[in-house]
User: Fold FAD-dependent oxidoreductase from Ideonella aquatica.
Amino acid sequence: MSKPVLNRRQLLLAATAAGLMPAFPAYTREKARVIVIGGGMAGATLAKYLRKWGPNLQVTLIDRNARYTSCIMSSLVLSGQRDLASLQYDYTALVQKYGVKIRTDEVVAVDPVARSVTLGSGKVLRAERIVLAPGIEFDPVPGLTDPDAMPHAWKAGPQTTLLRQQLLAMQPGGTVVLTIPKVPYRCPPGPYERACLLADWLAKKKPGSKLLVLDANADFVTEKDNFSSAFFDLHGDVIEYRTSTEVLSADAATMTLQTSTGAVQGQVINLIPRQRCGSIVASAGLANATEGRFAGVNVLNYESTAAAGIHVIGDSSATTQPKAGHIANQEAKVCADAIVRAFAGEQPDPAPVTNSACFSTITMTKASWLHAGFQYNPATGQMAGVPTASGASIGWNADNFEQMNDWFRALMADTFA
Ligand SMILES: Cc1cc2nc3c(=O)[nH]c(=O)nc-3n(C[C@H](O)[C@H](O)[C@H](O)COP(=O)(O)OP(=O)(O)OC[C@H]3O[C@@H](n4cnc5c(N)ncnc54)[C@H](O)[C@@H]3O)c2cc1C
Assistant:
């Protein structure tokens, strides 16, 4: 997203210095503080761009991990085409190039009124603005006492490696089950592309195996043309697709799922539960949208509709945009711009635009793509899809697979480098 803000800010600064404009409010000069919770796709982008566009701001980024592991591309770990190390990013550039302060700690409480953040270490930090970007949490699955028995691998990390090991250990001719939760969930095309990739891998490495895909939704939730021809034609010998099938409970001892359409068993079960905002968003009282699952925000600045001065970006927020890393990066830039303007006593950009691109692995070497543009609709107060800036590829090919790698490198560089 191109941002004319820097030039405009430089002009404003020049005008102020020349006495043509009132000076910025005192807190801009005195290093107003912003705390960012979560150093993933949304939080890392926000911290970087706050410092780029607001060099006077004191920005502290807190994450429980010293390194971020990207979910994007992580299904390729399951097929053995990537390892987790190739998906890990640290915060060195944010510190050294942009002057972001990093704290590796768990945030255990946020007080939106006092604008304070309590860390697991016991330290309490205060700021003029707090931005929450903690991603998602999963609903518990009745009966599943050990989540590792049926890994979601929907937060990249140890469960991704575990699911890979379980797939490798399965005998040929076995059944793998993959469950898709009700919308809204993280990465709408993600489970379908994982299914296609696994179907190709199973056909090559575990001949005679089946992939049973249980979708809690009534149909493919996105890119229907490509996924339906991949599921029913290309991978028709491997994939069995059941719609409107919700997981009710799980029994790891017998590797059985009770679902709304009957019981199923598998040798490996990739159980992706229903999702909600990060628990720190809920415990701060900000989960006031999507039946209490996600945080309502004003999409002009991503300020919570429940608390002034507190913002929520990325997968934890409830907007009309998909829960995706590319969109998280875009939301972060809109939010950063709005916060810098707010400290200068200005209103947010009244017409923000965001966009998202996504590549889906249809086989281990071929991909399709999807892109979507959004613009602010003042009548609804929401981001509305722009049909002329949205679309999908017709089919899939090896060139798209290459472009997927280029797109990923560029997105991660914009976020972490
Ligand atoms: C398999 C898969 C494939 C995907 N593919 C794509 C794709 O192709 N394109 C795309 O755009 N998106 C894709 N996504 C979606 C994308 O990964 C997410 O939408 C994106 O990561 C959301 O960014 P976020 O910043 O909201 O959350 P995250 O990136 O998850 O970051 C949240 C951060 O907050 C930290 N955190 C949480 N709570 C606390 C706390 N209390 N204290 C301290 N730290 C905390 C976490 O450690 C984490 O680092 C995919 C997702 C999956 C699972």
